[in-house]
Structures are given as C-alpha cells and as structure tokens.
C-alpha cells in the first residue's frame, strides 16, 4: 500500500470523526419532537411511572391497571384492571372510564379507590366489586371532595353547592355571578392560593372564599369567533386602582347555615393560607395589608365567626410574602409549624397555639422549598430544600426536638418530582412518613425513581428511564456561575452549544431570559432544565445562554428584593454581566447577539433591546409587560408599590419612555385574549414606537391567552425561530 493511499484512508477516518460528521450520523430534532404541543413530544421526554400512596402502600397508576409495588424489591402485583372498574361504573361511551392514571386511595384501611371519568367522580370498592358513591362533575368550575364525610363541594353556574354521597344536594349561594365569585381562587392566584374551598378535617364544615369584584374595572377582551365579534370582558384590577373585596364564609352541613368570619372591612386587604385546627373548632388565616408590609396570623371561631386572637405578626419595610398555611404537628395538636423569610431565607418555626415561638427548626443560607409531611414514628418533619445547592432540590428529615437534619436522597439533582399524568402534584411521602417515593433527575440522568425507607435510609431502585434522545445529535449542556453586577453574588447560568460545536468558529448567540420573581430557570435537572426550543436553535447553529439574575427565586429575600420598586433595572445589569461573559468567549460572535423571553421575560427582552440598543441585534418579546401600571394589583404593588407612591420607579421602568431607543429588529408576540398581561401593554408600546418613528414587528394569536395552547405552541416557536434565522444568522 502506497503512502498516498494510506494518507487518503487516514484523511477519510479523520473526517468521519469530526463533530459535523458525528452529528450527521444521528437524527435531527424537529419542533414536533421538542415542543410540548408537538405530535411526537410524548416520545421525546423521559418515560415515567405514575404513583400514589394507599396509606403506606405504594401504588402504580397506569392506563389499564393499578398495581401495588413491593417497597423492598420494586416488584409489582396487580390490584385491579380498567375493565374491572368499567364493569362497575358503566360502559356508556359518553361517561366511560378511559384510564386509571389519576386514581387516588383515600382510605389506608379500605380497598376503595377514587376515580373520575371527566363527567363523574366515583368511589369504588374494587375488592367488594361495589360502586359506593357517584358525584356529578358536568359543568363544574371547581370541586372539593371530603372523603371522611363523603360531602362534595362544587361551583356550578357561579354558585356554590354541596352534595352528599347519596346525591342529595344543598345550594349554599344564589347571587353568584362574574361579579360575585364563590368557592374559587381569589387575589389572582397570589399568596399561594390555588383553590377556594377548605373542608374541616371531619368534613362537617366548609370554609370558602367570596370575592366581590363589582367595583373592579372591566378590561374589554373580544371573541372573534362569533358572526359579529363580541366583548368578553375580564375583571382586571390594575396597580393603584380599585381592587376586589374578599370575605370567608363557613357552611355547617349539620345545621345547613352559613356564617361569615368577622374579619372587618375587607377593603384593601388580602386573606390567604387558610387552615383548620385539628379539633375543627377554629380557622387560622393570614391577613395582609394592601401594601404587603404587614401580615398577621389570626384565629377565628368557626361557629360564631368571631376573632379569637392574633398569634403571630410579621413586618418587612419592602414586603412580606406568605404562601404556605400553618401545619399542625400530628402528635401534638397544641403546636404548629409556620414558614417565614424573617431571617432572610424561607425557614420553619415551631409555635404553640398561644402564639409563642418555641424554636427555629431550620436555619442557614438556603431555603425550605416544601414541608412534605411528617415521620410520625421518629417525630421528624420531611422537607425539600436547597441546602445542598441553590440549583438543587433535596430531601431531608428534620428532628423537631434536636433540629438535626439528615439527607435522605443521593445529594445530587432535583428530587421528589412526583407529578401525575394531569400535571398535578402527587404525594411523595407515605401516610406514616416512613416511606418516600423519590422521582428525581440530574443533569445527565433523565429520570430515576427510588423508594426510600426513612428509618433505614435504604434506597430501593424502582425505575430508570432510558435516554429518549440517544439516537439524536444532542447539544452540549453546560452550567456555571458568574458574578452579579454587585460583584459579590454568584449567579447560575446554563449554556447550550451545537452538537457539532467547533471552538474555532464564532456563533450567533441568543440570551433566553425570564428574570422575574418566583422562577428559577437553571436547575440541576436533566440538561440543566433546558427548554426544547434551546435544543432546536442549537441544532441550527446558535449558542443559547440562560442566566438567573438577582430578583429570581429560591435564593433568599435579599437576592429577590434587590429589584424592589424598580423592576428590570438590577436584572438588566446582571444580564449585561452575562453578555460581558459571552463576549469574553472566542466562540461567541458579539455582533450577532439576540434575546428572547416571555411574560416577565418579554418585559426583560424589550427592556434590554431599548436600554442597551447597541448590544442586541434581534429580540423576540412574548406577552411583554410594558408598563407596570397596567399590571395587576397584587403582584405589581408587591414589587413596585403603587404608581401613586412610586412615580419615579414606574417612570424609570416604563418601556413606553424607551420606545424611541429601539435600533435592532424586535418582534412582539401576544395572545389577543391575554387576561394576565392584557393587550394594552403591547399596543401602547406600538403606539409609542409609531410616535417615535421606530419600527418593531408584531404578531398576534387570536383567541389565545397568555401562553399559546396545544399545537399553536409549535407554530409560535417556529415563528420565533424564523425571526432569528431571518435577522440574526
């Protein structure tokens, strides 16, 4: 063989090993694969096993069967099958049970399962082969079943009803309307509120919200799907404007009477974190002033409505943000746990019912994310926290006597991701607190599920997902830290590079941004919690960069409150520090920088494009807040105060004043029927740009709310992609 032939063979081998050649041997992604609305999305996410607890027995809920899982071996035994349930509940195609994913087991000592077919909620004894109860859910706006008493509360046609297990129905209200709202979420889902009805432990009394929003201004959204478009107004309490009034009713099923807690004039007050006392005689709730600087934990007599006492008060000159009700200790009804950020980080405190703080249960420069429940045998609380890392969620037990914390998982990744097929949260902890089903992920681990014995700390392997991307050209996912603009705070970032990344090349780079309170974008999940669109863009030859600036969540109150009264200012400074880091990398083409975000991220995108017009060439802002005076009372005033109290802050952060600065290509995209960031935001910005002579682009999704639903999300992300392809690449 001649030297020339040998050289030719070596050249071919080297070319086959090059990144581009390796990439070409793998499948390429489409948005149908990567976007949640895509036709192939379900096949591209890590496989899962849906589970729930039946007392201390772990049950797998699947489409066609439910099986009990041996906690020591992980092996399964069938409890019942879908056809068994259908034979008991009916085979009518209209109301036929389709799957068992959302099965619940409310009684630890009974072979009873709670199921729904969409139209009905049912209790079935699978062992005795008997349908025990059936509740009509057709047309129901909200519902709440108490399995102790069998009473079912629901909202229909704006009014609140209660049915018993025999089908007898009691109408609690008659004046319900879009102005008078019963038994549903109030205060725009703020303060941890996710429902509007609260059964007592014995199911004999029902506390519920009543919201009078007669005085709140209507925002004129429009339905274009009628022959002549019609108004579908949305109540929209904007910052500094008149807000709604909330009261709390209590219905007694034994007397059939309703009373209202005597909380006083509800004007400019918020009520949240409702909890019943263990003896069902008292209701604990948090009252917050409109300025959100003072909170009190108050106790009311459930039989008279009278205020009994205030057991706790908290003040912060900027704001307090209570989002979790108190939780009573299972073995001592005279004590409860309260969560508070009063020492700078969200931690747990032990109180007695007289209001005396007994001890701080957790402490450190990390936050308690969730009180999962209690290990009753060892008198410990089981929590999820960021103690191991600000981008991780790890499970600890906390001994309530000694305060000793014990790590129960592997110390890596994000744990207790126990969600059902419907996306709803499922319990990770068993009834006694002796067992945990730990569904977790790590940056290189798509999904693992282990069963943890709290007593022995032994972890039993139950399930491990295969990598659904193994046949594809997968980008490089990197995480690290940079210093914030304050030069001392570590900020976490995620970077996504093309699969065939060549360090000798320069790449167009897109900063994906959210940046607002309550969200942590960079997490130690699979691929560092990267969004599918980032992979799609990396495949097209872009670098993606995502940075959690000051003001985002789970880093303590000083980290979040750095943005108080001037949202967007400190956040942008941190994002620009991220840009400086990008410019220090030889692989980043600093003349081709883009930025994209949605909601608060849309606000940040537009802010960055107009505050630093020479930095970013292209931006796509989705559902952007343009001026905080158009945003809702609860959220807006917490972080900005009112426009009347903070005119300088509102003027400083208004993008209407910056429309004249726009230089690059900016596309704004909204849902035309967005009730959260109402269209007035984007339209006002367009008007300001017209007056200033600047030229943004605009696209609207008719009939869509704040986020695009279903397959329209694929269309949305293709549109975003094309904009960068047209103007950045």
Distance linking N and C termini: 46 Å
Largest sheet: 8 strands, mixed
Count of alpha/pi helices:
12
Shape: globular
Structural class from helices and strands? alpha+beta
Uncertain runs are 5-17
The level of helicity is 10-25%
Let me know the number of strands.
43
Radius of gyration: 27 Å
Mean pLDDT: 95
Beta-strand residue percentage: 25-35%
The neighbouring-strand order within the major sheet is 36-37-39-38-40-41-42-43
How would you explain this protein's 3D organization?
- The chain is built from twelve helices and 43 strands.
- It is an alpha+beta fold and 729 residues long.
- An eight-stranded mixed sheet has the order 36-37-39-38-40-41-42-43, with helices on both faces. Strands 12, 13, 14, 19 and 20 form a five-stranded antiparallel sheet that branches.
């Amino acid at each position: 063989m001649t030297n020339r032939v040998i050289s030719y063979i070596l050249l071919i081998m080297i070319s086959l090993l090059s990144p581009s050649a390796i990439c070409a041997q793998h499948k390429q992604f489409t948005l149908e694969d990567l976007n949640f609305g895509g036709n192939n999305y379900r096949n591209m996410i890590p496989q899962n096993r849906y589970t729930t607890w039946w007392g201390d027995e772990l049950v797998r809920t699947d489409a066609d069967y439910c099986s009990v899982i041996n906690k020591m071996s992980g092996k399964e035994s069938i409890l019942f099958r879908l056809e068994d349930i259908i034979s008991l509940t009916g085979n009518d195609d209209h109301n036929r049970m389709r799957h068992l994913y959302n099965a619940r087991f409310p009684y630890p000592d009974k072979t009873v399962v709670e199921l729904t077919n969409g139209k009905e909620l049912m209790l079935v004894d699978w062992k005795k082969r008997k349908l025990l109860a059936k509740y009509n859910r057709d047309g129901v706006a909200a519902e709440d079943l108490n399995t102790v008493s069998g009473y079912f509360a629901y909202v229909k046609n704006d009014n609140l009803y209660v049915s018993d297990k025999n089908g007898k129905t009691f109408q609690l209200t008659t004046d319900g309307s879009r102005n008078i709202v019963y038994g549903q979420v109030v205060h725009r889902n703020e303060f941890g509120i996710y429902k509007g009805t609260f059964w007592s432990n014995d199911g004999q009394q029902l506390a519920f919200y009543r919201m009078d929003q007669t005085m709140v201004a209507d925002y004129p959204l429009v339905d274009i799907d009628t022959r002549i478009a019609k108004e579908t107004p949305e109540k929209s309490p904007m910052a500094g404007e008149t807000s709604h009034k909330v009261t709390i009713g209590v219905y007694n099923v034994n007397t059939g009477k309703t009373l209202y807690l005597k909380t006083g004039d509800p004007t400019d007050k918020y009520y949240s974190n409702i909890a019943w006392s263990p003896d069902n005689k008292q209701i604990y709730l948090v009252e917050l002033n409109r300025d959100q600087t003072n909170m009190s934990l108050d106790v009311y007599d459930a039989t008279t409505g009278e205020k009994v006492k205030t057991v706790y008060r908290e003040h912060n000159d900027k704001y307090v943000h209570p989002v979790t009700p108190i939780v009573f200790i299972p073995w001592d009804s005279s004590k409860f746990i309260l969560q508070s950020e009063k020492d700078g980080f969200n931690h747990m405190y032990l109180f007695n019912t007289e209001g005396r703080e007994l001890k701080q249960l957790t402490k450190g420069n990390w936050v308690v994310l969730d009180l999962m429940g209690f290990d009753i045998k060892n008198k410990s609380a089981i929590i999820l926290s960021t103690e191991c890392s600000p981008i991780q969620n790890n499970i600890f037990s906390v001994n309530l006597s000694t305060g000793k914390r014990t790590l129960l998982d592997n110390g890596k990744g994000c744990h207790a991701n126990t969600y059902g097929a419907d996306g709803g949260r499922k319990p990770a902890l068993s009834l006694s607190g002796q067992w945990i089903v730990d569904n977790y992920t790590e940056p290189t681990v798509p999904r693992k599920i282990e069963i943890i014995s709290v007593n022995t700390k032994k972890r039993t392997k139950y399930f491990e997902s295969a990598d659904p991307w193994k046949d594809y050209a997968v980008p490089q996912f990197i995480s690290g830290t940079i210093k914030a603009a304050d030069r001392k705070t570590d900020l976490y970032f995620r970077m996504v590079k093309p699969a065939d990344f060549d360090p000798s090349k320069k790449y167009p780079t897109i900063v994906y941004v959210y940046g607002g309170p309550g969200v942590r974008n960079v997490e130690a999940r699979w691929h560092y919690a990267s969004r599918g669109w980032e992979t799609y863009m990396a495949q097209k030859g872009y670098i993606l960069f995502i940075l959690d600036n000051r003001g985002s969540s789970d880093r303590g109150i000083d980290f979040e409150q750095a943005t108080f009264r001037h949202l967007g200012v400190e956040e942008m400074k941190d994002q620009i520090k991220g840009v400086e880091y990008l410019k220090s990398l030889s692989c980043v083409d600093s003349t081709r920088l883009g930025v994209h975000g949605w909601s608060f991220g849309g606000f940040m995108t537009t802010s960055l494009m107009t505050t630093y017009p020479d930095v970013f060439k292209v931006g796509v802002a989705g559902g952007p807040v343009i001026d905080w005076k158009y945003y809702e009372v609860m959220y807006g005033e917490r972080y900005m105060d009112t426009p009347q109290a903070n005119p300088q802050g509102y003027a400083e952060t208004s993008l209407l004043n910056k429309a004249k600065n726009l230089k690059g290509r900016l596309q704004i995209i909204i849902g035309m029927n967005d009730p959260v960031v109402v269209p007035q935001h984007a339209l006002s910005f367009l008007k300001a740009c017209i007056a200033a002579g600047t030229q943004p682009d605009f696209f609207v999704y008719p009939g869509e709310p704040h986020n695009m639903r279903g397959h329209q999300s694929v269309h949305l992300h293709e549109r975003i992609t094309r904009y960068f392809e047209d103007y950045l690449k």
